[in-house]
Amino acid sequence: MFKRLCSTAVIFGAAALAPPVHAQPMTCLPRADLIEHLEGRYSEHLTGGGMQSPLQLLEIWASDQTGSFTVFVTRSDGLSCVIATGQNWQDTTPTDPEGVAG
């Protein structure tokens, strides 16, 4: 549980260190089009996400094959806006330390 919490803190902490949104060009398009592009061109699949607010869903898509990843928010009207992209995605699976009962 602690490792999952730390991983989540690192991911969202890194997002907080990104330049302000107004300094980056925001790419927004219908979610279906974005998913088709991520699956077809980058072999990415959904790896995690959650509700950012009652009207916004945050999703993280990544590829085990290419190491690429994409973070985007989908609004209630179906429009998805890319927040971040990158390379060398590391998928961490939480494990229980030896000798510790959970």
What are the salient characteristics of this protein?
34% strand, 26% helix, 2 helices, five-stranded antiparallel β-sheet
- Major beta sheet, strand line-up: 1-5-4-3-2
Beta-strand content:
25-35%
User: How helical, in percent, are the residues?
Assistant: 25-40%
Instruction: Count the DSSP helices.
Output: 2
Note the gap between the termini. 9 Å
Shape: globular
Which series of helices and strands comes N to C? Answer: HEHEEEE
Structure classification? alpha+beta
The number of E-state strands comes to: 5
What does this structure look like?
26% of the residues lie in helices and 34% in strands. The chain is of the alpha+beta class. The chain has one domain (2-86).
Layout of SSEs?
Blueprint lengths: L1 H15 L10 E4 H12 L2 E9 L2 E7 L6 E7 L3 E8 L16
Brief digest:
The model has no long low-confidence stretch (mean pLDDT 79). The protein is 26% helix and 34% strand.
